[in-house]
Write a structure and sequence with these properties.
By secondary structure, the chain is mainly alpha-helical. The protein contains seven helices and no strands. Helix 4 packs antiparallel against helix 5. The chain is elongated, with a radius of gyration of 16 Å. The chain starts with a helix and ends with a helix.
């Protein structure tokens, strides 16, 4: 594959990621998921495991949580979690905690939730449904 083709694919992935962010902010969850998915697939072909790819994986994982695809979220975010932690970014840890919570694997939520709070403070709880926050705060208090 030529460098020109690779560069075009990366530019398209950047554009798709920007649109995914805008779609998510506008509340268009499925559209955001579709755009994150396309962007991640483009970069996976050209720059697998690059920082950009890890960032896209994290965005995709967040979008998967938003539509309730928790098992797939865990698969997508797993390779990006260590990278996110290394740069002080809590989103991958938030996604893991949200997905585990959504799957009912409550006994496994504490570690990624504590990690997310360590990286992003208590504001990370805003990523969870309001009715779940008291239980999550209690979980954090036990740690």
């Amino acid at each position: 594959m030529s460098a020109d083709t690779s560069n075009r694919s990366l530019k398209r992935a950047e554009m798709l990621a920007q649109r995914a962010i805008e779609s998510g902010v506008a509340g268009h969850r499925q559209k955001a998921l579709d755009e994150w998915s396309l962007a991640e697939a483009l970069v996976a072909r050209h720059q697998a495991d690059s920082d950009f790819h890890q960032w896209l994986r994290t965005g995709l994982a967040d979008a998967l949580c938003e539509v309730g695809q928790y098992a797939r979220c865990l698969q997508v975010v797993a390779p990006a979690r260590a990278w996110c932690v290394s740069i002080g970014q809590p989103l991958a840890s938030i996604c893991v905690a949200r997905a585990l919570w959504g799957l009912g694997r409550l006994d496994q939520v504490s570690e990624p939730l504590n990690e997310a709070v360590r990286l992003g403070g208590m504001a990370v709880l805003e990523h969870f449904e309001p009715q779940h926050r008291p239980a999550l705060e209690a979980l954090l208090a036990r740690a």
